[in-house]
Write a structure and sequence with these properties.
The complex is a heterotrimer of chains A (about 400), B (about 250) and C (about 180). With about 400 residues, chain A is mostly helical. Chain A contains 15 helices and two strands. A two-stranded antiparallel sheet of chain A has the order 1-2. In chain A, helix 1 packs antiparallel against helix 7, helix 1 packs across helix 8 and helix 9 crosses helix 11. The longest helix of chain C is centred in the first third of the chain and has 24 residues. By secondary structure, chain C is mostly helical. Classes of the chains: A mainly alpha (about 400), B alpha+beta (about 250), C mainly alpha (about 180). Chains in contact: A-B, A-C, B-C.
């Protein structure tokens, strides 16, 4: 058995959950984080981030649509996955998650987007012709009331949905954390901190993703970046990061201090097989460095260009770091034997059903969907005006 | 009179014909039922196993018999039961040397000579048929469950192959069958024990180290066995309600 | 619908769409759930029958003794008259037979196919490898198990004379005290 060190149970020779299961919490994390950013404006009236409000919602939707795909490609029988909806085992976090996902998609995200965009959809419907007219008519459910009273109702409902959506977003990604954190058989996963760590790392990754998308799209549209917006996003990213880092350090310090029966095995694993992905990429490059960069922008007066470059670097490093965190949790939890006496390796293939190639395609797909959404539901209505007002 | 006799003969003929047909049909009905097991009542039984480490000689009979009985793939990583060999250095109790070459399918090659100073023993392992099993708890669709007679089973027509149960089992007793892409594990030879036979591994164990037990049967030797021996289950700190009871389980066993 | 809801018609449309979807889901659900699901527990009860119906591969000692009991030989049935039924020497506990505790299939392998169709013979399986599988000296084997190191055990150099079965009858293996 190549790559096995020490003793593993005979059935543990192959890893059960592959890189696709690493992608899944990463993607849902981006969804939850993007939504929290959107809710900053809608519920907490942080008006500075309004330029990214619609973009954040569309980003969340694009990633949420793709989220089931890695799961379907992983299942031995994807054609039976509907069973999770007709006979969900209420004791299973995975089963309940199916409904949390559906609720979040339909009850929160789609509805919020619909109520926020309704006026624009109706206007487009009325001014379009042919297929485009049919399409937008269907999107509005052929209701064309955009009087001030109707729009006021829309605004109230939208606000309500966002308020409900915040705990829903926490539930969405907290559940994913619980799926791992509740497995008592695995000492790397089993901790009550897991859902909390997942939520905060989700917020960090989602906010960073929307920030980078905003910068990238402004550059592509040759529109000046609203620095007030960007600075505010970076500030919230910094705060969320500090909380996330504190939680992760708390878990680590606690484990090292208590040094329970699994500690020797896990410590050895982190120092050898997970050294690059955990210590170098996740902690140093992916957490400490972005925090320092963001802290610098908070404490030192820097020029606009310097800040933009730092934000871009910090954002990119953040995404790499959070992906590494998902990798270290999912793959790391399977590299050691449950006998605590040995280790195995993850042999990731390339062009197989659960290989690197489908993983890359799955990560590219949300951006393709986002590009389509940006066309169908342009978020830039206010933006152009804002930019125009500034000039 | 003729009419009556004819009527009578006709009736008698019908009666004989129908009775004959019914008798033949009944044979078919009974043939589908478990042989020699008149109406197995699941709630009368609560199955488990006792394994006596002091008796295991590491022959590998159980591993071979299980694979034959249950059509288990011969591929790497597909074991419903397996045997581990522990070699414990009394000066280094925290790091026992453990091996399980092909699960013990072909027995064990000699590594030590007796008298080397290491404490060596064999530990057969299988699904512990947990009464509070963490694996059935996490199944999202109710494809794995505990039967009314205490055996943890898999419904292969409903299993999605999500592998959550494989992650949740602390004992590493589950695997994915590469042919059906569903999970598989020891069924305690459910198809045998419900017909009055014993599990295949117990049938062929040369020393009687493995014995199927029915905890609900007051005459089962398990009750006396538990009274007379120091019994252990694997990973008791995880409170799984394991029903495989080991005698002579050394502290080094994981 | 009074004035208050005049401008909320679009909201009702959304509510209707979602309600229709919910109802469709509930109908599909009741159609797709197997009828025996949840009867005994949160699973399809028919799964128990599926598993019970799996084929038997090992016949079990009782089945062997129905025809092959040398100690209490049965009346041979017509279809196997003339065929060898009785094992050469008895698995007799009264004669202090150490192999009495061994079930037949521990050495002979799965025999249900033979029970179903006696045309399929029971192979002779006496080979050194089979005996040594249990009796080779191996660290970790308990002391009550007779163990030999083949290279040191009564070697004459003649392959036939050195085979285990040259001195030990598998159904009643003599020990060195006999």
């Amino acid at each position: 058995m190549a790559g096995v060190q020490g003793f593993i149970y005979p059935n543990e020779v192959e890893l059960q959950w592959s890189v696709l299961i690493v992608l899944y919490p990463f993607i849902t994390g981006l969804v939850a984080g993007a939504f929290i950013l959107a809710s900053l404006e809608r519920v907490f009236n942080v008006s500075a981030v309004k330029p990214t409000y619609r973009l954040a919602l569309l980003t969340a939707l694009a990633f949420l649509i793709v989220a089931p795909l890695p799961l379907q490609m992983h299942l031995g029988h994807p054609e039976r996955s509907f069973e999770m909806y007709i006979t969900p085992h209420r004791e299973s976090a995975m089963a309940m998650f199916g409904f949390v996902y559906l609720w979040y998609l339909m009850g929160v995200l789609v509805l919020e987007i619909w109520f926020d965009y309704r006026k624009d959809l109706v206007l487009t419907w009325k001014s379009a012709t042919g297929v485009k007219r049919q399409f937008y008519g269907a999107l509005t459910l052929w209701a064309d009331d955009i009087s001030p009273e109707a729009l006021r109702i829309d605004d109230k409902i939208g606000r309500f949905i966002t308020i409900v959506g915040i705990p829903s977003a926490f539930l969405l990604h907290g559940y994913v954390g619980f799926i791992f954190g509740s497995v008592k058989a695995n000492p790397w996963w089993s901790t009550p901190l897991m859902p909390v760590v997942f939520i905060f790392s989700a917020i960090v990754s989602g906010v960073a993703a929307v920030m980078l998308l905003y910068m990238g799209l402004c550059w592509r549209r040759r529109v000046p970046i609203d620095m007030g917006c960007l600075d505010t996003i970076a500030k919230y990213l910094f705060f969320a990061f500090v909380i996330d880092f504190s939680l992760e350090m708390l878990d680590l310090i606690h484990r090292i201090y208590e040094a329970g029966d699994s500690f020797g095995t896990l410590d050895f694993m982190v120092k050898t097989r997970l050294f690059v992905s955990h210590i170098v990429i996740q902690i140093c490059l992916g957490t400490v460095l972005p925090i320092l960069l963001l802290a610098a922008t908070q404490m030192i007066r820097l020029s606009e260009i310097a800040r933009r470059r730092i934000y871009a670097a910090a954002g990119a490093l953040t995404l790499v770091g959070i992906f590494a965190m998902r990798w270290n949790v999912v793959i790391g939890g399977q590299l050691f034997s449950k006998s605590l006496l040995g280790y195995t390796t993850y042999k990731m293939e390339f062009a197989t059903r659960e290989g690197l190639l489908p993983a890359i395609v799955i990560m590219v797909l949300p951006f393709v969907i986002l590009a389509v959404l940006l066309r169908v539901l342009p978020p830039w209505g206010d933006e152009a005006q804002l930019a125009g007002n500034k000039a | 009179m003729d009419q009556d006799r004819r009527g009578f003969l006709q009736d008698a003929g019908k009666f004989i014909l129908l009775t004959g047909a019914a008798t033949i049909a009944w044979d078919f009905v009974v043939a589908g039922a478990p042989e020699q097991a008149p109406n197995y009542v699941a709630t009368d039984h609560w199955w488990g196993m006792i394994i006596d480490i002091d008796k295991c000689i590491g022959s590998g009979n159980c591993v071979r018999a299980c694979k034959a009985e249950n059509d288990v793939p011969r591929e790497e990583g597909c074991f419903r039961t397996w045997v581990e060999r522990y070699r414990v250095d009394p000066d280094d109790l925290d790091h026992p040397l453990v091996d399980s070459p092909d699960g013990g399918y072909d027995g064990f090659p000699e590594i030590d000579r007796p008298g080397d100073g290491l404490k060596v023993f064999f530990v057969p392992k299988l699904c512990n048929q947990c009464a509070d099993s963490p694996c059935t708890q996490v199944c999202p669709v109710g494809a794995t469950f505990e039967s009314p007679d205490g055996v943890v089973l898999v419904d292969k027509t409903r299993c999605l192959g999500c592998r959550y149960c494989v992650q949740a089992c602390p004992y590493g007793c589950r695997y994915i069958d590469p042919r059906t892409h569903t999970v598989d594990k020891c069924t305690l030879c459910y198809h045998r024990i419900t017909k009055g036979l014993t599990a295949a591994c117990c049938e062929v164990c040369p020393t009687g180290a493995r014995q199927l037990v029915d905890l609900k049967n007051p005459e089962d030797p398990v009750h006396q066995f538990i009274r007379e021996h120091k019994i252990h289950v694997l990973k008791p700190d995880l409170a799984t309600g394991a029903k495989v009871y080991y005698n002579g389980l050394d502290g080094a066993v994981r | 619908m009074g004035d208050r809801f005049q401008h909320a018609r679009h909201v009702f449309r959304v509510a209707v769409v979602l309600s229709v979807a919910l109802v469709a889901f509930l109908i599909a659900r009741s159609a797709l759930i197997p009828s025996d699901f949840g009867v005994l527990g949160y699973y399809r009860a028919g799964a128990l029958d599926d598993i019970k119906a799996l084929p038997i591969v090992h016949a079990g000692r009782t089945a062997c003794l129905e025809c092959h009991d040398a100690y209490d030989p049965p009346e041979p049935p017509d279809d196997v008259r003339g065929k060898k039924l009785v094992v050469k020497t008895s698995l007799d506990p009264a004669r202090d037979n150490k192999h009495f505790q061994l079930n037949c299939e521990a050495c002979h392998g799965p025999m249900q196919k033979h029970v179903d169709d006696q045309e399929k013979p029971v192979p002779k399986v006496a080979s050194d490898d089979l005996c040594l599988g249990c009796h080779r000296t191996l660290a970790g084997r308990p002391k009550f198990q007779p163990q030999v190191e083949p290279a040191d055990h009564k070697r004459t150099g003649d392959e036939k004379k050195d085979a285990c079965v040259a001195c030990h009858q598998p159904h009643w293996p003599k020990t060195s005290d006999d």
